[in-house]
Amino acid sequence: MQSTHLREHNLSAVLRALQAAGEPTSRAGLASLTRLTKPTVSKLVEELIGAGLISEGDPISAGAGRPMVPLRPAAGTLLAIGLEIAADHVSCLGVDLTGSELSRRTVYGRAASAEEAIARAAQLVREVRADAPDLPVVGVVAAVPGRISPDGRLVLSAPNLDWTDVPLVEGLRTHLAPEAGDIVALNDNRLSVLTEIDRRPGESFLYVRGSTGVGGAVVLEGSVLEGTHGWAGELGHTVVEPGGLTCRCGRRGCLEAYISYHALVEQAGLGPEVRIEDLVDELSRSSSRTEVIGVIGRSLGLAIANALNILDLSTVVLSGYLAPIAEEITPVVRETVTAHALAAEAGPISIERSDTTPDPALRGAARAALQPVFDAPGAWISRAATPAGRTA
Amino acid sequence: MQSTHLREHNLSAVLRALQAAGEPTSRAGLASLTRLTKPTVSKLVEELIGAGLISEGDPISAGAGRPMVPLRPAAGTLLAIGLEIAADHVSCLGVDLTGSELSRRTVYGRAASAEEAIARAAQLVREVRADAPDLPVVGVVAAVPGRISPDGRLVLSAPNLDWTDVPLVEGLRTHLAPEAGDIVALNDNRLSVLTEIDRRPGESFLYVRGSTGVGGAVVLEGSVLEGTHGWAGELGHTVVEPGGLTCRCGRRGCLEAYISYHALVEQAGLGPEVRIEDLVDELSRSSSRTEVIGVIGRSLGLAIANALNILDLSTVVLSGYLAPIAEEITPVVRETVTAHALAAEAGPISIERSDTTPDPALRGAARAALQPVFDAPGAWISRAATPAGRTA
């Protein structure tokens, strides 16, 4: 048992080191990164190459001595599937072990029911899977704008989807063959922030994301704060106006009641089917633009200031629909944050715009779906498609 | 160098293990706790006994085999000094390595200036020191109700003392002989929470303390969240009423503006020199009692709910002047927290009363002043008073 466990641990250490390195790395480089001996690393690398989890590039000569053989996670040998279930669309993304996109599908428009949304999502998973029929599927991770049970199976509450206690995983399973692998639901903001953490390794920051709702994540030295139920960072339901507007969650005065997609649609006087991108465009042309920016800036600023006082952080990252309007809202946000956050006494609070891809929750979901391979590569050694050899 | 470092590390591991065990422990027990070998532990224990940092009790026979010799941190061989500088009093506490009180002094009444408060504090340190003239002094830690510079020397802002940029450590130094050891200032709430953590090892909770101001600390699995500047947990300046009452910090709508000592003195219609204990008594007899309890409960509940949404914690501990009135305010606090905290959807939020000593900041300061001995016992081996031997 001990040696099986040790082998699994070492296989994982090598594969994770290669992922974290972010560039082709030699066996000697991996030995240095993992603090394993070179012979041990060479043996593990051979297993991982044989299983199609690592690929070798062409040897690179660097002056005298043996040429360096670059290793990287293998392309096109496994399929991991990310789903995003949002108020106005469902998207599906298939990636391989390198994180490269293999296939992508989106259906726009609001589903009439949870059942319909789940059926759409399952159909997209089938299509993405059909685009790479020969690859073993690692699993599916679904990003959902709400609170999920700790086991990742039940959506407890997703006010912007009008979902309460929806058994998402069970629903997807009834539509999908068992070969779809493990299916797990996770909060969309917790998945989105993974891309931001990649850009800011080891940093601490408050991540605020506007999508259908407004959510966030607390990142402490590169790790997402989980909290008791995995719900930490729920900025959208902090109170910015006691006794104020009624939020879709039923509470009064929540930040979301002022700056969510629904709240903004109402302020802009638009129909219910408008896409967030179009909404932002509309707002930027609207005659009430200054007023809307003021409402967003002040309520967001207050929620952020309160969070910063509890967390004592000095960096805030605006993402989702807040990123494209960051330049406009930041002066108002900054004014409110500076007025109320104690950390502003020690130096300016940095309010930054996220530069992530336009679909960080979907990308984060696909990335999370890959994680089992990095955590326990041994299980995949017998299942991977490519039998052996050099693929670069 | 390596072996000096290793020896220091192991001495510290043994002494910390003995402190953490909280009960007399044998050499074999320490070997098991530290994962060091028994011969190594025996050698380290002899050094620590010789230096007066550990004492041996009388051997205890337990059936057959060698009798067990109980070890504990040595009593009466070192002096660590805690100070508390509050709006209405200055207190000083001297403890030995067991945490036992050796001497205590308090002066009541508000000091006219920072200089006067510092002079009073220094006088108390001298008196406590004079009560144990033969013991080497580890150092002095001062608990201050405000924000301290990261190096622990400057009080940046303590609104309830009317202090801004007060060089506390330098001030104390001018009054005290160099033999007072290291002097450091720390936030009173961060020190108070240490006692609570001892009672709840490994737990996660939001700690809220009412004293002259209202502060707190965030405890995640037994560790205090520091934040960028060491100011995390500053619940007192989260906004509970946007544009509301002006706080002593100059901001508007802070929790402290509604429930601080000063705010309550005003609500109770009392003079400025009333002690917190008397104020609480007065409030409980007051005809406006229900109204005051309502204000405290609602504003505190809102601040707590917002903090819980960011942190996703399910336990709140009320301490300081909030502890004796916890029973009265908890129903109102609970109502507001349940209405706004998402975690309440997963199960009841536990709102508990701290059972700590009446002066947790002072005790925490003394405890923190001991810490250098546990961190680096080697430095004390040459300085401790008792040359050798059994003291139990």
Q: Can you describe what's shown?
A:
2 copies of one chain form a homodimer. Chain A is an alpha/beta fold. Chain A has 3 domains: 2-73, Arc Repressor Mutant, subunit A (Orthogonal Bundle); 79-191 and 359-376, Nucleotidyltransferase, domain 5; 201-353, Nucleotidyltransferase, domain 5 (2-Layer Sandwich). In chain A, 40% of the residues lie in helices and 20% in strands. Chain A is built from 13 helices and 15 strands. In chain A, strands 5-4-3-6-10 form a 5-stranded mixed sheet. In chain A, helix 4 crosses helix 5 (168-175). Chain A is globular, with a radius of gyration of 23 Å. The two termini of chain A are 35 Å apart. The model of chain A is unreliable at 385-392 (pLDDT under 50). At the A-B interface, helix 10 of A face helix 10 of B. Chains A, B: This is ROK family protein. Chains A, B: It holds the Pfam family ROK. Chains A, B: Belongs to the ROK (NagC/XylR) family.
The total number of structural domains of chain A is: 3
Overall geometric form of chain A: globular
Strand line-up of the largest beta sheet of chain A: 5-4-3-6-10
Number of strands of chain A: 15
What is the subunit organization of this protein?
Answer: homodimer
Straight-line distance between termini of chain A: 35 Å
What's the CATH superfamily of the largest domain in chain A, by name? ATPase, nucleotide binding domain
The largest sheet of chain A is:
5 strands, mixed
Mean pLDDT of chain A: 88
Helical content of chain A (DSSP H or I, runs of 4+): 40-55%
Organism (chains A, B): Brachybacterium rhamnosum
Family (chains A, B): Belongs to the ROK (NagC/XylR) family.
Pfam family, one (chains A, B): ROK
Protein name (chains A, B): ROK family protein
